[in-house]
Amino acid sequence: MSVGTAHFGGPDRPIGALRDLLRQRVAAVPAGGSIEWVTYYFRDRGLAAELVEAHERGVNVRVTVEGRPRSARANDRVIQLLEEPLGNNLRVVRMAIDGKPLSKLLRSRLHAKIYCFSHPDPVAFVGSYNPSSDHPEEDPQIIQEIGDHDRGHNALVELREPALVGALVAHARGLNKSVLGPWRRLWPRMNRPVGSDSASLHFWPRASAHPIKRYLYELPRGSRVRIAASHLSGVSAEKMLLRLAARGIRIEIFTDQTDRRASPDLERKLAQAGIAVARVVYHEWIPMHNKFVLVEAGMKRSVIFGSFNWSRPSQRYNHEIGVIAGDSELFSAFANRWNVLAEQARKRD
User: Fold this and answer.
1) What is the distance between the alpha carbons of residues 284 and 45, in angstroms, rounded to a whole number?
2) 126 closest CA partner among 14, 5, 1
């Protein structure tokens, strides 16, 4: 049995494909059921209204959202829509350091994307998609800054394995009720993987070694690693990639077209080490926001996905989710998506 099903958004897919997927799941939960909703950007007032409607028909709806994302006021309208009906079940993550010097570097942000539904069967969606566009769009300046995620390249994986779903529901509820901050890295449960032989689930921030780096460092010489990374920057990512290349790992990378998300300096260094890097270019407002890794080690195939970025804040401070899955169906789905990215990567002038 497969761990789950991959769903994709992108300029080759219907606009709002992932948004509509979540909307359908919200509508399918009956009275007495539950919805856990955790995201970084949430600007979609239509989806917010669907959550309010679910709450009013007797669904236990918990929403946890970042209160000061990079575009600081982006979530304010949705927060205003949700705060009265949801009451204490709405958690807006704000911290004392917000707006102060170094807060962009040191602040622990809620960057995970988790959408859990109790009915018609228990599932949890994780991946890269934020409902960050509004309909109709009344603030195009924000879209210019953060990108149109209803048109951009994104993924959500619908997990069905009970151990993974249960852990994600518990984690989402913890984010909704606990005091958040970088000190959570010291909690034992943040440093323990959850899952089975077919898939393991990992949380950030954490004090123990980065599980994805550790997994990649154990690959045998001659392995192939393909990385779709919306963000690619920082000394840590550079060291990891150069170390893997020096050990004989063949690495290919697709990243976003913007210099802010992917450092041109790091791109040059990786190219000098023989690492193939290409930027996926479509339209300036349509981001390559995927976050996945395809691994081929001999006959073994695995795929890694989640909310994590290859950047310093993501690896050291932020609340993130990552899954390592040895699932042939999921691997094939993401490999096919890699081929779609390859078509657009070749279109760059």
Assistant:
1) 24
2) 5
Strand partners, 37: 63, 115
Report the C-alpha gap between 103 and 95 in whole angstroms.
Answer: 10
Cα distances (Å, whole numbers) of residue 129 to 10, 20, 326: 11, 12, 22
Closest CA to 36 of 44, 27, 28, 26: 26
Residue ranges and CATH numbers for the domains of the chain are 4-182 (3.30.870.10), 186-345 (3.30.870.10)
Q: What is the pLDDT of residues 184-227, one digit of tens each?
A: 888 898 999 998 778 999 999 999 999 999 999 999 999 999 99
Cβ neighbourhood burial of 281 (10 Å; 0-12, 13-18, 19+): middle
DSSP string of 88-103? GGEEEE--TTTTSTTH
pTM (2 d.p.): 0.94
Whole-Å CA distances, 244 to 227, 239, 241, 265, 306: 13, 9, 5, 19, 21
- Give residues with Cβ within 8 angstroms of 170, minimum separation 6: none
